[in-house]
């Protein structure tokens, strides 16, 4: 008989090994899934994980895309990880991402066609503020009325999506767009454009912000009392109360930071790679970032790596769609599978697996 | 704007149809939560049920078989959650989210060949002379079997939880799994049963959307219905009849805003479309603020990991 025995503290070796094990298991199960769809599993896995980086034909296009896709994922996941560590569940990052983009783009569109070096910084501020305020709705409802923050933050995603549609079709529609939905393209508005900073690297200000967020989160968690409170609240809630941690302040802090970062991710996306507010502007980064946060073990450096890996599955998925005719949904299922395997093998971090019958209870 | 086109009897009849998917999913989740398990994967199970039911109904030509297939498919998916949370002791919030993300992807994958297909229609239940009663005939007796089944399910769940020994045991497991374990009840087995029941109900709800309410298959067609079902369980403070009230309230808002859209109310369509979500949030706030009454009624072991040490 197999028994589980709780470890006195989580195993460090397994903490590092489980994400790798989960990725390996996902590749196996994903290969089986692709085979069931009638595709060569080895070719599919190679197209997703290898070709975007090393295939001579595609790498020139794919490599820059890696940072473009990883930037928002890392930025959002860093914010979410703080809350997840403290047991504060913000799962509405997708909505905060949308609102950040709307607020940031709103500033640019209101000032069009003025040119000034101050416009882009103002947009950045507006994007962060938009995401922050949208996240404050579940946070304040939680602290004031004890409303479940998981449900409220998630339901607000649907509200934000409707707001996005309304903006793309109404208030922010391009007056010179011939009646098509969607705003002006910010890529053609120099003061508002978030350009590629180094040619052919995919590096833009959002990626810079993501790296800064990784460093900031690392310092916060390891060198700052707030980071200590976050960890304490998650690992030992009772001890946290004795240590003087105010749970409400923590909820507001975690939601505020994750909302602002998600808002920033939205702003950098709308002013850069995407370029405009359109109905289908959001592509699910806010939800994928949840997977990134867990895959990175809620650790800033882990999230950096996990974000890059997840970006790779996006790019490789597109490539596999194009080369092998693999359906887009297969990649979505693949990413979901990864989170499942991750949570499943996590048992090894916190428990020892024992074979044979247990001792008689004393 | 022309409000005279909205007739109350059509409105109430449409309300019952609009509420049924959420009612089914919510009553299933109620049982799961009463057993002390928080399954946030309702949305994923619902959409997987929607495509399973749709596929089976199209392939066999029988909506009834479709509903069976939906229940079986979603229950099977819920067992992924069950194994992870009950045997591998994973965090229930994270696992539920994973179930939703995976369910959305998997359903889109399965549903590729079914976009634009029309499912076989489900016959309205012929209740004979009852259907000819003015007003009530149209409102109460002109529906398909699933509407009545969902109402029967609410009654059955109430009976089970409050009037049966098995229901008492299930509630005991949800209130204190350690005490229930010490009394010799099989906590994990009972919880797995509850999770499977919740999955089957969510699947039925999803299939009701794809086979009757819409009726068509589109990716992401549940559009948050699973999350609203979760909110309705909180709104109902874990009582079956209040789940019915909550679901019909939500259905009412949905139908009303659709009718206002059709009547051409001078408010942009998007703002009307977001109203069901906003109303759900407002209701949640009201319910949870009243001196924590709703919170007091929550099963005490809700969402906690059970690990038997002996």
UniProtKB/TrEMBL annotation, chain A:
Top-level taxonomic group: Bacteria
Record's GO cellular component terms: plasma membrane
Location(s), subcellular: Cell membrane
Positions of transmembrane segments: 12-37, 70-88, 95-112, 118-141, 150-172, 203-221, 248-268, 274-296, 303-323, 329-348
Membrane topology, as annotated: Multi-pass membrane protein
A molecular-function term among this protein's GO annotations: transmembrane transporter activity
Keywords: Cell membrane, Membrane, Sugar transport, Transmembrane, Transmembrane helix, Transport
A Pfam family the protein falls into: BPD_transp_2
UniProt xrefs under PANTHER family: ABC TRANSPORTER, PERMEASE PROTEIN, GUANOSINE ABC TRANSPORTER PERMEASE PROTEIN NUPP
Protein name: Simple sugar transport system permease protein
Source organism (scientific name): Meinhardsimonia xiamenensis
UniProtKB/TrEMBL annotation, chain B:
Bilayer-crossing regions: 12-32, 37-58, 64-84, 96-115, 135-161, 188-209, 221-238, 245-265, 271-287
Keyword list, A-Z: Cell membrane, Membrane, Sugar transport, Transmembrane, Transmembrane helix, Transport
InterPro entries the record matches: ABC_transp_permease (IPR001851)
Parts forming coiled coils: none
Source superkingdom: Bacteria
Bilayer disposition of the protein: Multi-pass membrane protein
Name by which UniProt lists this protein: Simple sugar transport system permease protein
């Amino acid at each position: 008989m197999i028994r589980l025995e709780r470890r006195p503290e989580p195993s460090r070796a397994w903490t590092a090994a489980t994400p790798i094990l989960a990725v390996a298991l996902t590749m196996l199960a994903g290969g089986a899934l692709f085979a069931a769809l009638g595709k060569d599993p080895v070719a599919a896995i190679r197209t997703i994980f290898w070709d975007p980086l090393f295939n001579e034909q595609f790498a020139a296009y794919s490599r820059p895309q890696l940072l473009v896709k990883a930037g928002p994922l890392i930025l959002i996941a860093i914010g979410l990880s703080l809350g997840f560590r403290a047991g504060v569940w913000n799962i509405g990052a997708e909505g905060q991402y949308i609102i950040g983009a709307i607020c940031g783009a709103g500033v640019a569109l209101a000032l069009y066609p003025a040119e000034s070096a101050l416009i882009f910084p103002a947009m950045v501020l507006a994007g962060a503020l938009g995401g922050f305020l949208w996240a404050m709705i579940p946070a304040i409802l939680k602290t004031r009325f004890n409303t479940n923050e998981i449900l409220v933050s998630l339901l607000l995603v649907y509200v934000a999506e409707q707001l996005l549609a309304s903006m793309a079709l109404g208030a922010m529609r391009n007056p010179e767009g011939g009646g098509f939905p969607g705003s002006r393209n910010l890529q053609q508005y120099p003061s508002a454009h978030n350009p590629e900073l180094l040619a052919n690297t995919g590096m833009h200000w959002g990626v810079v912000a993501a790296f800064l967020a990784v460093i900031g989160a690392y310092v916060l968690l390891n060198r700052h009392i707030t980071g200590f409170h976050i960890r304490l609240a998650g690992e030992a809630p009772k001890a946290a109360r004795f240590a003087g941690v105010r749970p409400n302040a923590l909820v507001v802090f975690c939601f505020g930071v994750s909302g602002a970062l998600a808002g920033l991710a939205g702003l950098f996306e709308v002013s850069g790679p995407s370029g405009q507010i359109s109905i289908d502007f959001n592509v699910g980064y806010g939800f994928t970032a949840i997977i990134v946060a867990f895959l990175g073990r809620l650790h800033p450096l882990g999230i950096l790596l996990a974000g890059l890996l997840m970006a790779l599955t996006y790019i490789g998925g597109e490539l596999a769609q194009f080369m092998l005719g693999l359906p887009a949904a297969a990649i979505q299922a693949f990413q979901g599978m990864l989170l499942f395997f991750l949570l499943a093998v996590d048992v090894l971090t916190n428990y020892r697996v024992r074979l044979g019958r247990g001792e008689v209870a004393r | 704007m022309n409000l005279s086109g909205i007739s109350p009897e059509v409105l109430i009849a449409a309300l019952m149809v609009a509420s049924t998917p959420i009612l089914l999913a919510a009553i299933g989740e109620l049982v799961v939560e009463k057993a002390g398990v928080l399954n946030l994967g309702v949305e994923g199970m619902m959409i997987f049920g929607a495509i399973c039911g749709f596929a089976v109904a199209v392939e066999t030509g029988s909506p009834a078989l479709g509903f069976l297939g939906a229940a079986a498919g979603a229950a099977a998916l819920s067992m992924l959650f069950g194994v992870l949370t009950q045997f591998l002791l994973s965090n229930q919030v994270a696992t539920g989210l994973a179930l939703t993300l995976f369910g959305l992807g998997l359903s889109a994958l399965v549903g590729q060949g079914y976009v634009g297909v029309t499912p076989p229609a489900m016959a309205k239940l012929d209740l004979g002379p009852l259907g000819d009663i003015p007003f009530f005939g149209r409102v109460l007796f002109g529906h398909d079997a699933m509407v009545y089944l969902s109402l029967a399910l609410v009654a059955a769940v109430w009976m089970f939880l409050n009037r049966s020994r098995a229901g008492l045991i299930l509630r005991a497991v949800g209130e204190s799994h350690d005490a229930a374990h010490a009394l010799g009840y099989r906590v994990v087995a009972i919880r797995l049963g509850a999770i499977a029941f919740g999955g089957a109900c969510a699947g039925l709800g999803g299939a009701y959307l794809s086979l009757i309410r819409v009726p068509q298959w589109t990716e992401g067609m549940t559009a948050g219905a699973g999350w609203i079902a979760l909110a309705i369980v909180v709104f109902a403070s874990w009582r079956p009849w209040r789940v019915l009230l909550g679901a019909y309230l939500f259905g009412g808002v949905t139908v009303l805003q659709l009718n206002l859209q059709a009547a051409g109310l001078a408010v942009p369509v998007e703002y009307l479309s977001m109203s069901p979500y906003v109303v759900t949030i407002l209701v949640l706030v009201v319910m949870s603020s009243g001196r924590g009454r709703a919170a007091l009624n929550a099963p005490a072991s809700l969402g906690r990991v059970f690990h038997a040490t002996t």
